[in-house]
Design goal:
With 312 residues, the chain is α+β, with helices and mostly antiparallel strands. The protein contains 6 helices and 7 strands, in the order ββββααβββαααα. Among the domains are: 122 residues, DNA double-strand break repair and VJ recombination XRCC4, N-terminal (Dna Repair Protein Xrcc4, Chain: A, domain 1, Beta Complex), CATH 2.170.210; 77 residues. Helix content is 57%, strand content 17%. The chain has a 7-stranded antiparallel beta sheet with strand order 1-2-3-4-7-6-5. A hairpin with a 5-residue loop joins β5 and β6. It starts with 16 loop residues before the first strand and ends in a 9-residue tail after the last helix. InterPro entries: NHEJ_factor (IPR052287), XLF-like_CC (IPR053829), XLF-like_N (IPR015381), XRCC4-like_N_sf (IPR038051). One of its GO terms (molecular function) is DNA end binding.
């Protein structure tokens, strides 16, 4: 009933969002369709995944709710209404409306258990997440985070260069007699290595905490994640289109060469017959010409005979 690693479902375009479920700090990303969903969860020690489609959702709903008579679309609409805000980190369900608990199972699996009500009747659901394949982890987490890190590094280097230029500009003003009207605006000259050492000493102990990393994947990082993924997807799409174009040209060239080869082969196969026909035609023509020549020469010889006249 469950499948993992469903491609091209739009989940990659969704950023990771910090969520707190049943006291667990997680990063989550989810994509809900009309009657399908794909979710990823991580506590930075493991990544879990589940993908479900209409038939599997209907089967599990019947398994967990024996009295359920609602069609899968109505059931799933209610499920999305309750769960989607929780997995997006926007809000928790109001007290008494729904309850979501987290269970770590044997084999490294993770279960999110939902208790709610639909049309006044108890409603149960379970997200049965399994450890995600390495390819999924790399696609949704490792590759984007490395690209984000490189992007932020480039930004920091440009800002450092800008600060150095500003210091040089201020120093030029001072050397030409300019003074600050307010002493509180006085700043020290920016020294890159000194600043970086001080910054790392103050912040590493805080940002290396797992809970801190989960909680502080904020809006700015989410936007950067989305931009990095969108750029990567566009680049892959262009490369794919170029590969398809090259493949089409190669196939067309190969087909043309094959057709030309077949034509040459047919021509080579029929040439002995054609040569034999030409030989027969040439032979017949030669014989006809020879016969005509003999016929023409016979009257001419008759004309050369001396006529018997009165005088000899």
């Amino acid at each position: 009933m469950e499948t993992t690693g469903a491609p091209n479902d739009g989940l990659l375009q969704h950023p990771w969002r910090p969520v707190a479920i049943d006291g667990c700090q997680l990063l989550a990303k989810s994509c809900f369709g009309e009657t399908r969903y794909h979710i990823l969860l991580t506590d930075l020690h493991c990544v879990w995944e589940e993908t479900m489609h209409s038939a599997a959702i209907q089967s599990r709903a019947q398994e967990l709710n024996k009295r359920l008579q609602a069609p899968v679309k109505a059931f799933f609409s209610h499920l999305c209404e309750v769960v989607r805000p929780c997995l997006s980190g926007s809000r928790q369900p109001p007290e008494g409306e729904a309850n979501i608990s987290v269970m770590r199972l044997d084999g490294g699996n993770l279960s999110l258990r939902l208790k709610s009500k639909l049309a006044g009747l108890p409603l149960h659901w379970e997200f049965r997440c399994t450890p995600a394949p390495v390819t999924v982890v790399c696609l949704h987490l490792v590759q984007p985070l490395l690209s984000m890190s490189h992007t932020l590094q480039q930004e920091v280097e440009q800002l450092e260069g800008l600060l150095v230029s500003k210091d040089a500009e201020i120093q030029d003003y001072k050397e030409n007699g300019a003074t600050l009207s307010r002493a509180r605006l006085q700043t020290e000259i920016f020294e890159r290595h000194t600043y970086r050492g001080s910054f790392l000493a103050k912040t590493l102990a805080v940002v290396c905490s797992d809970h801190h990393s989960v909680k502080n994947f904020g809006v700015d990082l989410q936007e950067l994640y989305t931009a990095v993924v969108a750029h990567g997807s566009m680049r892959k799409r262009k490369l794919s289109e170029q590969d398809e174009l090259v493949t089409t040209v190669v196939d067309a060239t190969t087909s043309s060469d094959a057709d030309r080869g077949e034509a040459d082969s047919e021509q080579n196969q029929t040439s002995p017959v054609a040569e034999a026909g030409d030989h027969i035609v040439r032979t017949a023509t030669t014989q006809q010409l020879a016969t005509c020549g003999l016929a023409e020469r016979a009257p001419s010889k008759a004309k050369k005979k001396k006529a018997v006249g009165l005088f000899r």
